[in-house]
Amino acid sequence: MAQARPRAEGAGPFTTRRTWQRPEGGTVVWESRTARRRGTLGVRAPDGTVATTTAAPEALGRLRRLNAIASAAFVIGGALFALGAAVTLFGRGGAAESAALSFAGGLFFNTGGYVSLLQVLNGPRHTTDGDGLVTTRWKWWGYEPMRLDWLSTFVLFVGTLVFGVDLLDSFLQGLTARQADRLVWTPDMVGCLLFLISGHLAFVELCHRPWPCPRSRGLGWWVVAVNQLGSVLFMASAVAAFVRPATDGPVDPGVVDWGTLCGALCFSAAGILQAVERPRGTAADGSDGARPGTRAGRRGSAP
């Protein structure tokens, strides 16, 4: 059993990694993203063997289902956003068709954002002594602002809702420049800003420090990085969409369409990567991996 007082790491008031020293030697490491995405703890034995301890099969099944829904929602939502931008960019449809496709994409983004929050609320938690992972009863909602993963996904979900306001208002016709900037451009900017904040918080959770880290070999890093690139491109598109009263048109229509198209493709790509970043099977269900609470190890560096 691990000691009761672990070494905590993170940024500011947030703890994103805990390390317990075992009385018999070795360590147990809990990382926020790994636990909620993979359902595992990292274990290093006194002889240097590195392995994982997994959550119960029921918990892993819950994580797999939520991850599958969230990743599919972002893949489809991003594809619809990209299609809406392509319709305008390549002259295959009008503003109404583009707005309808983007609005449908926004609904999938709403779903993906909410399910991402459910992943945090219903993911396994580490025990007090770090000896394993436990799963609480199912929650449809929860308020846990001192958890960085909750804060990141909550901001993401709110961002998708704000985008919904922008996408709904985009159906309005005959708006003046001032009305378009207030009803369409402003919520677009706010939504993009919330996406950027959510992505930065995801980097803080992953890197255990206030700024991004160059950890390109990790799948989780690529999921966060590609999502953040999409957010940056969406922000560029939003800035260029400001309607100037002098011309009654956006600052740069090309940046608006290309930024939306490329950003949406980034979100779809990140959704595909997220589908791969799922809990591994356990030996109990016949697939590769360690049984819950066991350590099927290898030689190597700590997780």
Explain what this protein looks like in three dimensions.
- The protein contains seven helices and ten strands.
- The chain has two domains: 7-56 and 281-299, no CATH class; 58-276.
- The two termini are 19 Å apart.
- Helix content is 55%, strand content 13%.
- It has helices at residues 32-38, 57-89, 95-121, 148-169, 177-207, 219-240, 253-276; strands at residues 7-11, 14-21, 27-31, 40-44, 49-54, 125-126, 133-134, 243-244, 249-250, 298-299.
- With 303 residues, it is α+β, with helices and mostly antiparallel strands.
- Helix 2 (57-89) runs antiparallel to helix 3 (95-121), helix 4 (148-169) runs antiparallel to helix 5 (177-207) and helix 6 packs antiparallel against helix 7.
- The radius of gyration is 22 Å and the shape is elongated.
- The strands form three sheets. The protein has a six-stranded antiparallel β-sheet with strand order 1-2-3-4-5-10. Strands 6-7 form a two-stranded antiparallel ribbon. Strands 8-9 form a two-stranded antiparallel ribbon.
Short description:
With 303 residues, the protein is of the alpha+beta class. The protein has helices spanning 32-38, 57-89, 95-121, 148-169, 177-207, 219-240, 253-276; strands at 7-11, 14-21, 27-31, 40-44, 49-54, 125-126, 133-134, 243-244, 249-250, 298-299. The radius of gyration is 22 Å and the shape is elongated.
Name a few traits of the molecule.
2 domains, 55% helix, 7 helices, six-stranded antiparallel sheet, alpha+beta, two-stranded antiparallel ribbon, disordered C terminus, 303 residues, single chain
Q: What spatial order of strands do you see in the largest sheet?
A: 1-2-3-4-5-10
**Biggest sheet details:** 6 strands, antiparallel
Decide which structural class fits the backbone. alpha+beta
Low-confidence segments, given as residue ranges, are 282-303
Q: Helix tally?
A: 7
Cα distance, first to last residue?
19 Å
The number of domains is: 2
Average pLDDT, all residues: 84
Estimated helix fraction: 40-55%
Strand content: 5-15%
Write down the Rg: 22 Å
Number of strands: 10
What best-fitting shape do the alpha-carbon axes yield? elongated
What is the string of helix and strand elements? EEEHEEHHEEHHHEEHE
